[in-house]
Amino acid sequence: MRSSRARRALLDAAIAAIVVAGMAIARGVYSNELMLFNFIMFLTLSQGLNIIYGFTGYLPFGYVGFFGAGAYGFALAVMHLHLPALAAMGCAGLAALVLSVILLPLLRLSGAYFAIASMAAAQALYEVIANPDLETVTKGPYGVSLAGVFAPAASYYLALAILAATLLVVVWLRNSRFGMSLQAIRDDSVSASMAGISVVRGRTVAWTLSALIAGLVGGVFAWHISVFYPDTAFDLSVSIFATVFLLFGGATTLVGPLLGVFILYGVYNVIGIAVPQYFQFTYGALIVLLVLFLPNGLVSLLTSRGIRVP
Amino acid sequence: MRSKLLALSMFAASGIAAVLAPAQAAPAAPSQITIGELYASSGPYASISMPVYDAFKLWVDETNAKGGVEMAAFGGKRIPIKLIAYDDQSSTATAATLYNQLITQDHVDLLIADSGSVLTSVGVPIAREHKQFLFDVSGTGAAFFSEDNPYIALMADPVSTIWPHYISDFLNDEGYKEGIRTVAILYSTNDFTGTQAAALKGFFERDKKVKVVYYQGVPTNTSNYTVLINNIAAQNPDAVLELGYVGNDIAFLRNLQDSGNQFRFVFTIYGGTEKEEIEKNVGVSAVTNTFSYVPASNYEYKPEVGMTQKEFRAAWEKKYPSGSGVAFGANAIYGYMTGLVIQRTLETTKSLDQMDIHDAVFALSGKLKTLDGTFELRKDGAQIGEVTPLGQLQPAGKNDVKLVAVYPPDLANGKAVLGK
Questions:
Q1: Chain A residue with minimum CA distance to B103
Q2: Interfacial B residues in 1-60 facing A (CB < 8 Å)
């Protein structure tokens, strides 16, 4: 039993390693680095969202709030503390962690109420950051320029490292007692509690882990792009994309969000560049078809037949 | 003996020259010059982006109809232009990817930014990283320009810190004589208008004649100004300066008319800059006697290169007849003007190397006179020419207004009428 679990974990880890290695090699093959970076960004974000939604059932529409907090945590550390980029990444993670602790009470809500409340929280944070009266601190709505630390290659590889770590966390969650306890909480929190699982502790850990990942991605995004506005860092489409990719592929799995990002974001880039006028139509049609025929994502094609998907 | 030596050396010199001559001949000419450009067909920046894009296409078509640009670097051969344009849909994230696409995948010879500061901002570090010169059409944000970045130049309108100069000069000069003592500044919080607002506040505080009694920034997506107008009215200012994008100006002018409040001097950026678009949306009465910049679309500069404003307008209306979607205005001029800078750059550049492109663009500074005025660059690439006069939309016949330049006196073609 234990050896079969170890084999499964090894298979999951191998898939994660292939994805990370593939993205590392891709940089040498394909020169539109920003597009590859965006792939890494969404691969990580959709897995981060997977941790909170796939394993606990909470769907935060305002997930971008952590991303934005991370981006601004990084920017403020560079601008005001003059920290080097790697140290500033610590501030990015810390900013998201602090925000996640502040927003912990939101976990008392559930379903649509939680989703909307998290979105409102992200919007509130955006309004604070973009406030013109805070221009001396956050640069307000005029955006930040971090030209001094601009290092596309280093930030690309750091993003890759964050992706690797995130994938390993998901592998661990899928193959550990803790991950199973989270799924038990998601399926029936009362029963899980009766079985001795600490519901509050489980949800809190998943929530902060998920926030930390988004914050780190936000930080490395700020480093990589170096010029951005609050509208960019708190753009709701970041949440929407990560959510759609996750749901398209299939939550709670390692492969589902990966498929979602590679297929949908790939389509987005092909259509978005070549024939943008058809983009929304094609994207909308894909999502409608998915909701109608595969509500549990692409992986349900296999899981519904009893086949385990990593 | 000496004459023999001389003859021998001349023969040798001519031989060497003959051998070297082919090496100095013009390099092989490319079959086409590729120009990459971004535009926004939808979203908040579509109204300033599409006229630029359409006007630039007009320049490309006009140039290709003549066989292309005559490039001295390739022995005066005419080389056609190929335009590769992508739609960023007003999204900075999409724009960043597309700038990369143009540079790294399409390998364009020349790169043109999308309109406005927001969509230009993401292109600045990308162009610099790839050592690709960026033709910045109208991204006026002061932060884009630094002397250590040679890969950018602002084409068609002055940097935001210079642009509003004539407004404060007018109010401190003629306005002060007419009793203007207080001013309210309401601005949209973005690079373009925020920088202008800050510059204006600085000018007024420096000159200490007109006092700023209201200074408020609002989000760029603000669509209702009723409460803000009432707040301004409570301060009883003589002059009100509203600095926003087209959508902001439309909402402000509508709400101002509906509120019934009247001020002696009301300024909006796009009342004159995109006169037709504003008139279409708010009606003539809402803009009558308001002040605005006088863009090249409403002012007759004498160009030494390219079409005059009237000729360009005729060409525009022929290609894009009324009702085809995009109105003629300042941004159309900016698009055509960018084409003219590129034309002169290509005609004079030593090669398509990006630093040679830089040198050719900067060599035009102060010498290129187009329908947009005199093109003049600061060392860091910021535009300091093409400063627009202050104008007023004065009644002209029945249900029409005309944009009259009222300041500075040497550019004025009419006199300002201040409210009572």
A1: A32
A2: 41
* B118 & B185 share domain: no
| Domain shared by B252 and B191, yes or no | yes
Q: What is the DSSP code string of B330-366?
A: HHHHHHHHHHHHHHHHHHH-SSS-HHHHHHHHHHTTT
- First CA to last CA across chain A, in angstroms? 17
pLDDT tens, position by position, B271-321: 998 888 899 999 999 999 999 999 888 888 899 999 999 999 999 999 998
Residue A182: give the domain boundaries: 2-237
pLDDT digit string (tens) for A223-238?
998 888 898 899 998 9
How far is residue B416's CA from residue B393's CA, in Å, rounded to a whole number? 10
Residue B104 has pLDDT above 60, yes or no: yes
B230 and B309 belong to one structural domain: no
| Whether residue B53 is found in the same domain as residue B71 | yes
CATH classification at residue B188? 3.40.50.2300
Per-residue pLDDT at B19? 47
- Asked if A271 reaches chain B (Cβ–Cβ under 8 Å), the answer is no
Cβ(A208)–Cβ(A101) under 8 Å? yes
Average pLDDT in the A51-67 region? Answer: 96
Number of domains making up chain B: 2
Query: Which SS3 state, helix, strand or coil, does residue B306 take?
Result: coil
- Amino acid identity of residue B13, one-letter, is A
Is B141 in the same domain as B183? no
CB-based contact, B194 to chain A, within 8 Å: yes
Q: What domain range is B84 assigned to?
A: 33-159+300-375
Chain A residue closest in CA terms to B142: A142
In a domain, A220, yes or no: yes
Contact A227 B125 (CB under 8 A): yes
Which of B80, B147, B141 lies closest to B113, judged by CA?
B141
- Of the CA atoms within 13 Å of residue B50, those in its CB half-sphere come to 16
Q: Does B220 touch chain A (CB under 8 A)?
A: yes
B345 and B277 both lie in a single domain: no
Residues B253, B396, single domain; the answer is yes
Kindly provide the ipTM of the predicted complex, given to two decimals.
0.77
- Give the pLDDT confidence score for residue B4 in this predicted structure: 54
Q: Determine contact: B217 vs chain A, CB below 8 A.
A: yes
In a domain, residue B23? The reply is no
Would B288 be classed as within a structural domain?
A: yes
Strands B77-79, B368-370: pairing is unpaired
CB B287, CB B309: distance < 8 Å = no
- Mutate one of B97, B120, B148, B221 to test the A interface: name it (highest A CB count within 10 A): B97
What phi, psi does B222 have (nearest 5°)?
A: -60, 130
